[in-house]
Design goal:
Elements: E1 5-12, E2 15-21, E3 25-30, E4 36-42, E5 47-48, E6 75-78, E7 85-87, E8 90-92, E9 104-110, E10 114-122, E11 128-137, E12 142-151, E13 157-159, E14 162-168, E15 174-176, E16 181-187, E17 198-200, H1 204-207, E18 216-223, E19 229-234, E20 239-244, E21 252-259, E22 266-273, H2 280-286, E23 290-292, E24 297-308, E25 315-316, E26 322-323
Antiparallel strand pairs: 1-2, 2-3, 3-4, 4-5, 6-14, 7-8, 9-10, 10-11, 11-12, 12-24, 13-23, 14-22, 15-19, 16-17, 16-18, 18-21, 19-20, 20-24, 21-22, 25-26
């Protein structure tokens, strides 16, 4: 049984790269690039679940820039808004503040049975600090996250927060989530109706990935969740990746489904969110945002789990169990 290992001595495109691994998984983190998780690899299957932009390498971002023009792929944190938002006299950048700032980090535990990496970052506009612990246990295909978001200011802080992993696709990959209602939040080709259209979740033509030649670019909210999880499965190889999260913190999924219709890319981002719409001013107007009082913190635990032997998923538990 291979021990858990954390190795912070790597460089990738002249960025610090921290490798966390056990016998099943290997993660690569780029703390200077918003604490991005760039690789999440299931080692026995030689499968990297995260999408990489084939035309853009990782590079140090400039704060406040257009995320799309700097996006090399991977897994990011989004706070306090997704789309550009002007709120209480401040203009928050696209995909928020955390992705374009370097995070501090330290190794809290380095094997052999368990490894834990701690990362933190304060934001520029919002008076906030985000802390994140990433933990691997020996011989588990599970990454466990603990987050703590704190209001450092003197007034109540309104925000939206989303976890933003972007996954690679092949035609036929299956999306499973315990939602009852889908809502169109963004559309380019409009095959599902204009923004605001609601429908009964799931829609088979969305939840089984079409080929990139379809040319769709869709962003939909999966709402009325009966449980807190989402899964993406390759049914042919019976390999997949899933997230489990507390529904009381993340009551909605934002599903960013790019089936060839945006810049020629092909990927899906399945994102637990604290509310919706994911533009802060609109979420506040709708009363679907979160607020922290001065000095107050929001803490929660989430996980990512890789699995094999399943063509579909009916549940992911908070303990990392996956049921077909």
């Amino acid at each position: 049984m291979a021990p858990v290992r954390i190795d912070p001595h790597w460089r990738y495109h002249d960025l610090t790269a921290i490798v966390l691994e056990n016998a099943r998984l290997r993660l690569t983190l780029l703390p200077e690039l918003g604490a991005k998780i760039y690789d999440l690899i299931l080692k026995p299957a030689d499968r990297n679940f995260l999408w990489h932009n084939p035309r853009l390498e990782p590079r140090r971002p400039v704060y406040g820039q257009n995320f799309d023009d700097w996006w090399c792929g991977g897994w990011d944190e989004v706070f306090p808004t997704c789309d550009v938002s002007t709120y209480q006299g401040e203009r928050y950048p696209y995909l928020g503040e955390l992705w374009s700032l370097p995070w501090s980090w330290r190794v809290e535990e380095d094997g052999p049975s368990q490894g834990c990496l701690y990362l933190s970052r304060t934001t520029v506009i919002a008076p906030a600090r985000m802390e994140k612990w990433i933990r691997l246990a020996v011989d588990e295909p599970v990454v466990r996250f603990r987050h703590r978001l704190t209001n450092l200011g003197t007034q109540p802080m309104d925000f939206g927060w989303g976890i933003h992993p972007c996954f690679r696709l092949e035609p036929g990959y299956r999306i499973d989530a315990p939602a009852r209602v889908g809502i169109v939040g963004h559309t380019v080709t409009s095959p599902f109706g204009p923004v605001g259209t609601t429908y009964a979740w799931p829609r088979p033509e969305l939840c089984q990935a079409p080929p990139p030649s379809r040319g769709w670019c869709e962003g939909h909210y999966a709402t009325d969740l009966t449980d807190g999880w989402v899964a993406l499965t390759d049914p042919g190889a019976k390999v997949g990746i899933g997230l489990a999260f507390p529904r009381e913190v993340f009551p909605v999924l934002w599903c960013w489904m790019v089936f060839g219709g945006w810049r020629g890319h092909y990927h899906v981002a399945l994102e637990p969110w604290t509310g919706w719409p994911h533009r802060l001013d609109e979420a506040v107007a709708a009363g679907r945002h979160r607020t922290l009082q001065p000095g107050e913190s929001l803490e929660c635990e989430t996980l990512a789990v890789a699995y094999t032997g399943l063509a579909a998923v009916s549940r992911i538990g908070s303990d990392g169990s996956v049921r077909g």
